[in-house]
Amino acid sequence: MNDRRHWSEATQGIRSAEYRTELREHSPAIFATSSFVYDSAGQAARVFASEEPGYIYSRFTNPTVEAFEKRLAAMEGAEACVATASGMAAEMTLLMTLLRSGDHVLASRTLFGSTISLFNNYFVKFGVEFSYVDPCDLDAWRVGVRRNTRLLFAETPTNPLCEIVDIAALAEIAHKAGALLCVDNCFLTPALQQPLRFGADLVIHSATKFLDGQGRCVGGAVLGDRKRVGEEVFSFMRTAGPCLSPFNAWVFLKGLETLALRMQAHSAGALRLAQWLAGRPQVAKVYYPGLPDHPQHALAARQQRAGGGIVSFDLKGGKDAAFKLIDATRMLSITANLGDTRTTITHPATTTHHRIGAEARARAGIGDGLVRIAVGLEDVDDIIADLEPGLS
Ligand SMILES: Cc1ncc(COP(=O)(O)O)c(C=O)c1O
Description:
By secondary structure, the chain is of the alpha/beta class. The chain has 2 domains: about 5-30 and about 60-255, 3-Layer(aba) Sandwich (Aspartate Aminotransferase, domain 2); about 260-390, Aspartate Aminotransferase, domain 1 (Alpha-Beta Complex), CATH 3.90.1150.10. The chain has 15 helices and 12 strands. It has helices at about 10-15, 40-50, 65-75, 85-100, 115-120, 140-145, 165-175, 190, 225-240, 245-255, 260-280, 295-305, 320-330, 360-365, 380-390, and strands spanning about 80-85, 105-110, 130-135, 150-155, 180-185, 200-205, 220-225, 285, 310-315, 335, 345, 370-375. Helix 3 (about 65-75) runs parallel beside helix 10. The radius of gyration is 22 Å and the shape is globular. The termini are far apart. Pyridoxal-5'-phosphate binds near residues 88, 112 and 220.
């Protein structure tokens, strides 16, 4: 069937939102221009009044950025997408558009650190309330909803413990309360999980991670329905301007072309690594949703196409053993970023989750022996060979 509505995400990532100038280039061009010109004052007036199609100014309309937005929207099954300068800019843009003083946001307690900082240090200044619950405890979400709850916010799988949040159940709780559900989908991407299909209202991305996939650019996106995102979020972007550059949009556009293939390869490598780690006597526990003994393996199989590229594990020897393992690697990159062709390794308690404090780490189950690996696209045998000396 060659109807584009029935294309798979892999095909959407390559063929949707293709554009071509009169030069007939095969690969998309980059429109590195801040503004656009008109044939007459009358045409300018008509374009500004939306009476005639046309681009105005790259803070809010640029052909390369628009192509990335349309292609990502097609992959997520969203009506609209607004691209942003970073993943954090996507969160700020969404919250600024959606919330007013007196609103309450109910969020997972396992969120990216800067997300919690954005909520607790900045949005509280404008009278928005936040509270946090165990992301896997549906009763806690039900009890946590308040009369003024406007938004439920979660990441799934969570970082770094790969817990799975039930998107359909959370959407039902949100809608019963008259609230919206937003899912941060940057760990799996639409190649492996489409939250809108399970009832979420909004999706945000850090495109910096797997959408780029090669650690080159920072960017983000907000996705959802035509009115909320296509009109309201777009209007905030037009006014405030935390926009994506055309060059970064072009890099992400090319990234989407290989996304489905890469996510399958990241997942296959992560599964092999998780299986290998599970058989090592020095490893106390492996956290990977693709393993059958993961407590939410069945839920993951329902809402994800594969396990994703992130594997975490507890070492019996605690922090000493974790540091020794990390320091003994020769090929892996010691960095907290993820979603790259290069495998990265980090010790969450002293890096990504250092700022939340020991008590919050203990509550979240992030121990001193925990190591997180974001599996890249190297041969998994070489990744295992790099880890072996530090484990034995
Ligand atoms: C889950 C998650 N959401 C959002 C962000 C923020 O994205 P960015 O770094 O592009 O601002 C990150 C960054 O690490 C992340 O891991």
